[in-house]
Amino acid sequence: IKTIPTEETKESITYKGWLWGHNTEDMTIGQVNTHALYEQIETAVDTYARSWHDEWKKLFGNVREEMIEKLSETITNFEKEVKSPSFKDAYYRKLINRALEDLRNNDYLAIGDVITEYKRQGYDIANQKFYPSGTEDLQEENVQKHIKNCFEEHNKNIVLQFRILANGIKADIKNEISKNLGEALKIIGEMKDSFAKKLTKEGEEHLNSLEKDMGDKTAVLEKVENIIACVTELENLYK
Fold this sequence. Notes:
The chain has 239 residues and is mainly alpha-helical. Helices cover 73% and strands 9% of the residues. It contains five helices and two strands. Strands 1-2 form a two-stranded antiparallel ribbon. Helix 2 runs antiparallel to helix 4. It starts with 5 loop residues before the first strand and ends with a helix. About 2% of the residues have low confidence.
């Protein structure tokens, strides 16, 4: 919000009399249009929060599906090329599916409370009406200029408060994203550890059964490392 919606209203203003005492009369002054301002703030909060939610879901989901597909393909290729009786791809596919389901829970940003809180703050900001003061010691010809200056300062303060609100919602949504990301990385890390542990064991068993040259053994080890590297790539992408 760069400008504050305003409207004209009449207020009783007291100012210094020409010779003595004070005079009071109704004057037309600027006033904050609180309804229009709150609608602007509410829309800004909704738009920012929802756009983050939708973009996170899209980004998170796309990366997840892309890497799970790549991981499944790597497992299939490993199975075809190694042809080891000790290798059971069902274990890995089950692990992939479980991790996929667990990760699915992290594509939703739980920001409903954040939206509600910042709308409440926005309501408080929007309802700060302008009340002119400091006119009692001014002559009539100086009153309008004084009121105008005070009104401008009042509106600048509202803009400043909105910027503080905007920084706050950015920080809170960032915290929620970090929380989701941390949970996702934990799931991926656990999957990576399980893959590495079991693949290493199966790779060693298969190597022990080989009676061919060292080239075959090297090829098997490379395939094992390829799968582990694929999970690491998934982990790094989310980071």
